[in-house]
Amino acid sequence: MLNLNQLFQKIKIDIKKSKNKEELEKIRIKYLGKKGILTFYTKNLKNFSFEEKKKYSIAINEIKRKIIVNFNKQSEILDAIILNQRIKSEKIDISLPGRRFENGFLHPITYTINYIKNFFFKIGFESINSPEIEDEYHNFDALNIPKNHPARDSHDTFWFDNNRLLRTQTSNMQIRIMKKEKPPIRFIFPGKVYRNDYDNTHTPMFHQIEGLIVEKNINFSNLKWIIYNFLYDFFGSKISIKFRPSYFPFTTPSAEVDIINNNGQSLEILGCGMVHPIVLKNVNIDSNTYSACAFGIGIERITMLRYGISDIRYFFENDIRFLKQFKYN
Ligand code: DAH
Predict the structure, then answer these.
(1) Is residue 216 a contact partner of residue 289, using CB atoms and an 8 Å limit?
(2) Which ligand 1 atom is at minimum distance from the Cα of 273?
(3) 37 alpha carbon to ligand 1 midpoint, in Å?
(4) Alpha-carbon gap, residue 99 to 164, rounded angstroms
(5) What does the domain layout of the chain look like in residue ranges?
(6) Ligand 1 center–CA 263 separation, angstroms
(7) How far is the CA of 169 from the centre of ligand 1 (A)?
(8) How large is the average pLDDT for residues 191-214?
């Protein structure tokens, strides 16, 4: 009897010490299994007298019962530990940002072009794309920029041969559209232009949007109204605009518009004017009946001003860190 009690104390400790269900199961088999110690004791009872048999089998059964109680208790404890570990490891952190696919987004230049187009669509303009390879006539001659005209020098033209070139301005489209369409004409021409120039405000390729209106009574104040409204729309009404007289061979009078930034520096962003009678004559439009105004906006310039970009070359370096800043345009 004493041995049985000591044995039970030991089993109890073994059960308590078991760290997982496998260990616990081994303990159960060791003591209660077919070849287990307590089973062995029960089998051995046959060697005892009837009275002793009775007494010991009651004691053995009682110990077995107590072992099972302890066993079940430990099993529950281990189950709780396992559950807790699972809860911890499978915990969902709802504050973590979700996994998502990155969407593409527009390049800031494309965004600006679309923005400008939308503005001009609202006031009745149409937009067309136009060829970047041009001839001397449409890029220069017809625009009243004859050979040897000093204005040609400032364009640093890329020539293919002695007639074909990469257009230096979108003004070429004034000629093409006026030859093709009958007034009234109200068009914008966005596109790439090329000049052999490279520094923090010049790249060999950049973008312009040309605008052209040919109507019976269009005048300089109409042109100013359009330009002011466009610039206030694009930059907001706090922007400071300077309209100053200028010279372009294909317009008269001509003006340039500067935007004055927060540091008081001015940056030229567009040229404009009333289309020169010689240009109208070149495309067979009677300047006594029709008048025309035109403007050419530098897309990179106004995009730089709008976002505070200091170097035009950032637009074309394809540095994803730069481009990503325009994700939420
Ligand atoms: N084509 C000129 C340039 O590239 C800009 C310009 C000036 C366009 C006056 C115009 C205009 O339509 O009227 O510098």
Answers:
(1) yes
(2) 13
(3) 105
(4) 52
(5) 2-89, 108-323
(6) 26
(7) 7
(8) 94
How far CA 163 is from CA of 43, 48, 140, 143, 158, in Å, comes to 116, 126, 11, 15, 11
Please tell me whether the overall predicted TM-score, pTM, comes out greater than 0.85 for this model. no
Tell how far the Cα of 58 is from the centroid of ligand 1, in angstroms.
113
pLDDT at 98 over 90: no
What average pLDDT does this structure show over 41-63? 88
Q: Rounded distance, CA 73 to CA 234, Å? A: 76
What is residue 102's predicted lDDT score, i.e. its pLDDT?
79
C-alpha of residue 270 to centroid of ligand 1, in Å? 7
The fold of 108-323 is BirA Bifunctional Protein; domain 2 (3.30.930)
Q: What is the rounded average pLDDT of the residues 294-310?
A: 93
**Residue 2 has what pLDDT?**
53
- Choosing from 178, 295, 299, 301 the residue with most ligand 1 atoms within 8 A of its CB, the one to mutate for a pocket test is 295
Q: What is the dihedral of CA 310, 316, 322, 328, to 10 degrees?
A: 100
| Cα gap 250→171, rounded to integer Å | 9
Q: From atom 7 of ligand 1, which residue's Cα is the shortest distance away?
A: 271
* Predicted local confidence at residue 111, as pLDDT: 96
Mean pLDDT of 53-66: 90
Residue among 222, 248, 280, 302 whose CB has most ligand 1 atoms within 8 A, to mutate: 248
pLDDT score for 47? 84
Which whole number is the average pLDDT over 50-73? 91
144 C-beta closer than 6 A to ligand 1: no
Closest C-alpha among 205, 117, 126 to residue 173: 126
